[in-house]
Amino acid sequence: MRHLPSKPSRKALSGPLALTALTLTLTSLVGFGQPAVAASFDDPEWPCIQRKVPHLSIGQMWSGPAIDEAVEARAKDREIIDLAGRLAVRRTALEGAESLIDAFAKAHASDREPALAGLFLATFERIERDRSAIIAGIGRYAKKQTALSEQIDRRRTELHDLRAVTEPDHDRIEELDDQVTWDTRIFEDRRQSLTYVCETPVILEQRIFALARMILQRLEE
Asked: What is the largest CA-CA distance in the chain?
């Protein structure tokens, strides 16, 4: 009796993209026998519907005090780095992040402007770093999907040729059939993981924008 391979677990397959344990959901454009392509975007290998934006711009997020050397120095304060790390992670809800920012602003009433600007910069840099790692991971994952889809096509072609001969090699046909079934299940599971991750860069962009607005509000009080 033939035993088809069991479906691989999502946890095992999504490991390469568990860079920051961040994931989301939209439709993937990856299909069998073709590379992961998003129409009308600059990178033909980018697999997501969302446009690829490799890096965020501070100027688009921040309208507060200039990010000068003094602010850059404050952003390296241990207190600020630790708080930025808490603000950057999604397990800290935005409501909780606002409370943390409010408490920090009150504690730095005497030097509020450089302290808050430094907090924004440290938070921006943390999120930018995490976001860039996610984007790089998506690119690597998409290439693996393309390679797997090509492998599936090759094995399907070989199966077709083996079945067409007068005396087919049934053992090899069975082996290939199991391999195609296994690869197809892996491909589909990876595709679901990939589509779930694709919106993560957008989520992170929205988060830093929201945090920037909160910090700016404390500067205006």
From this structure: 89
